[in-house]
Amino acid sequence: MHDEPIDPFNGDPADPSAGLDDAVGDAPLEPLTESERQDVLEDLADLEVYQALLGPSGIRGLVIECEDCREPHYFDWDLLRGNLRHLLNSGRPRVHEPAFDPDPDHYVSWEYARGYADGVHDTLAEGTDDGES
Ligand SMILES: [Zn+2]
């Protein structure tokens, strides 16, 4: 049984845990680089897709394993969007405002949402392959 925390931002330059040490203290915040902004914008776009796909089936948001607490945090869609926008505006992540008293059944991991979206995309692609001519 694997028990390792999954980092939803693994390998992602927008990793909110990256540079946390640098953010400590009174050093001025540096704005995101253009590619970092791009990554956050892509995450925002992905979120829209995930919410559109999963929201109707009762999924309220994503669960993210917190490296600091070593426990999962549950984020509503709106909260996730707010966090990403905050990151865009300030260059600093807000990772510690999880949903209050969440029901784990209503949250899925970022990987699950991505896989689900990919699956739906593939299904749609296959459907168009059949053609209607
Ligand atoms: Zn935490």
Question: What would you note in describing this structure?
Answer:
This protein is an alpha+beta fold and 133 residues long. The protein has one domain. It is built from four helices and three strands; from the N terminus they run ααββαβα. It has helices spanning 20-23, 34-54, 77-90, 110-130; strands spanning 61-66, 71-76, 107-109. The chain has a three-stranded mixed β-sheet. A hairpin with a 4-residue loop joins β1 (61-66) and β2 (71-76). α2 packs antiparallel against α3 and α2 (34-54) crosses α4 (110-130). Zinc ion binds next to loops.
What would you call the structural class? alpha+beta
Shape summary: globular
User: Unreliable stretches, pLDDT < 50, 5 or more residues?
Assistant: none
SSE order, one letter for each helix or strand: HHEEHEH
Bound molecules: zinc ion
Strands, count: 3
Structurally, how many domains make up the residues? 1
Question: What is the overall pLDDT average?
Answer: 81
Order of the strands making up the biggest sheet: 2-1-3
Roughly how much helix do the residues carry, as a percent range?
Answer: 40-55%
What distance separates the N and C termini? 50 Å
> What is the tally of helical segments?
4
Task: Classify the beta-strand content into a percent band.
Answer: 5-15%
Cα radius of gyration in angstroms: 17 Å
Question: What labels would you give this structure?
Answer:
binds zinc ion, alpha+beta, globular, three-stranded mixed β-sheet, 4 helices, 133 residues
Topology (elements, then pairings):
Blueprint: H1 20-23, H2 34-54, E1 61-66, E2 71-76, H3 77-90, E3 107-109, H4 110-130
Parallel strand pairs: 1-3
Antiparallel strand pairs: 1-2
Helix pairs in contact: 2-3, 2-4
Zinc ion binds at residues 66, 68-69, 73, 96.
